[in-house]
Description:
Layout: H1 21-28, E1 32-36, E2 39-42, H2 44-63, E3 67-68, E4 74-76, H3 77-83, H4 85-88, E5 95-97, E6 103-106, H5 111-121, E7 130-139, E8 154-164, H6 167-187, E9 192-196, E10 207-213, E11 219-224, E12 230-232, E13 255-258, H7 265-272, E14 280-287, E15 290-297, H8 304-311, E16 316-318, H9 321-328, E17 343-347, E18 356-359, E19 365-370, E20 380-382, E21 400-415, H10 417-421, E22 425-427, E23 433-435, E24 437-444, H11 445-455, E25 457-458, E26 461-462, E27 473-477, H12 483-498, E28 503-505, H13 512-522, E29 526-530, H14 532-536, E30 539-544, E31 550-554, H15 555-573
Parallel strand pairs: 3-7, 15-17, 17-20, 27-28, 27-29
Antiparallel strand pairs: 1-2, 4-6, 5-6, 7-8, 8-24, 9-10, 10-21, 11-12, 11-21, 13-19, 14-15, 14-16, 18-19, 21-24, 22-23, 25-26, 29-30, 30-31
Helix pairs in contact: 1-11, 2-6, 2-11, 12-15
The structure holds adenosine-5'-triphosphate and magnesium ion.
Adenosine-5'-triphosphate binds next to strand 8, strand 21, strand 24 and helix 11.
Amino acid sequence: MRYSQFFLPTVKEIPSDAETISHQLMIRGGMIRKLTSGIYSYLPLGWRVVRKVEQIVREEMDRAGALEVFLPMVQPAELWQESGRWSLYGKELLRFKDRHDRDCCLGPTHEEVITDLVRSEIKTYRQLPRNLYQIQTKFRDEVRPRFGVMRCREFSMKDAYSFDVDNEGADVSYQKMFAAYQRIFSRCGLLFRAVEADTGSIGGRFSHEFMVMADTGEDGVVYCDTCSYAANLEKAEIARPEDRDPLPDNVPPCEEVHTPNVRTIEEVSAFLHVEPKDVVKTIIFNADGVPVAVLIRGDEEINEIKVRNYLGCDELELADDEMIMAATGAPRGFAGALGIKARIIADYSLIGMRGVVMGANREGYHVKNVCLGRDICALSFADLRAVRTGDVCPHCRGSLTFARGIEVGHVFKLGLKYSKAMKAVYLDNNGKEQYMVMGCYGIGVTRTVAAAIEQNHDDEGMIWPVPIAPFQVIITPVNMKEERLAQAAEKLYQELQGENLDVLLDDRDERAGVKFKDADLIGIPYRVTIGPKKLDEGQIEVKNRRTGEVAAVDLEKAAVWLVEKIKGEEDSLTPLLD
Ligand code: ATP
Ligand code: MG
């Protein structure tokens, strides 16, 4: 491609509405333009990167045995009513009526459509397993679209759906997708982690998110410094602590103390001269209409997702004043576990806690000297709190650490959720009807592009990993008016194209400084500079965008040299096949 004929409107100023680096650079580098909130047009440079990511995704999905389809974006309400999601999916689902007054929506995901297709076409176990995928535009009317194409309303997703005869088969399909995702993100040249993710109502351990590691990521990732354990912050588990010694008998009995106008943990600990960790918070939840008291140390935070999963309830919310009054006999702010009319669960960190303070279920009073296990017996312990740095790994007792990441992919074992709701069945070898066991697997293609920039940039601009770079090489003759420089550039341009490399020839009549700045901004991995001095010696200079290293290479050998470098980088990122 010749720069003079390309459509690459770069911008010097940082756009005022772009908070993140990737958003800023995608605008400045002429990759995208905003049409309206959360909706973007891709310009040629941006689209080239999207196409490269798509290509890698396609190759690996095909290799894993998935078959490409293309499903409609406009979907009828009936299917969503069948799955139950028409009422459950919130405002993110863009609904509208067609001219016949029929309810429709724009697909935010395609479980309904694919399940409908498969249930009509697949009849027997002989036609299973199947994995179908597509790369397509999704629409989610996000409440707060932000960070450019990272969290937008219209975006491109690769979504795959597997159908198996049984659980074991579904596990195999899941593992195949997991392995394919590892290859995909490795081949894209990204640093990533597969982390355990919450499976919500479906349960089990079968959900992983693929996170591109970046300090600017929206997601918290917890990982072990010793073993390979990694999980989304929402889901990260903490090892059960060792049991404590039997209770010593020297803790005096519980004693109610008057604590006027003292409510928060800080106020209680200051008033009674104890540490916040020796005050127990009692938080009452409404779990599917039933009160549950969750006990946690004053210096810890509850993780509601853990509470919900432990209870196995559908809906969990903080109890209202009425429920608190009924359970404790006191207004909000004085709840404690002694004598409470609710099921009690306590975080692991409270195992063997003694001599602690908690609410007295009486306005203006707290109780001290409480010993769990002595004074409160009907309770169970579970992992209910948010992880903190240094917590103990549930697998190897190593130490847990935090990082931030961007969710670019998600693999999920769905089980029978959709096949039951939508009656997707097959006949087994006894002629008996069975539900298909499903899995779903998404990759945010356009988000991956933004994540790659978030992870690979410097003050000058983007730094593309070779496999997804819009161009691998940019040739910059320092002065187009000097005939021999232009000729040498043209010659190399032809040679590299002959080698099937993606090359941009900066044939603009611009100052070298301007060209260099643009090349850095758009992040082309190799910049060839053709200048008079070196050319006198029959040489050109090649600058590596990432390392800044400059190599003088003979013009005659330049094409071969570049091909070797670029293929070498691609190969080093491609995992060997098993
Ligand atoms: P998030 O938690 O970030 O909202 P999600 O869990 O709802 O995402 P999935 O339903 O798992 O997303 O979708 C699969 C993939 O699609 C995600 O891993 C992500 O890469 C991408 N994706 C989801 N929502 C958006 C969005 N609003 N903009 C761009 N990409 C998105
Ligand atoms: Mg997800």
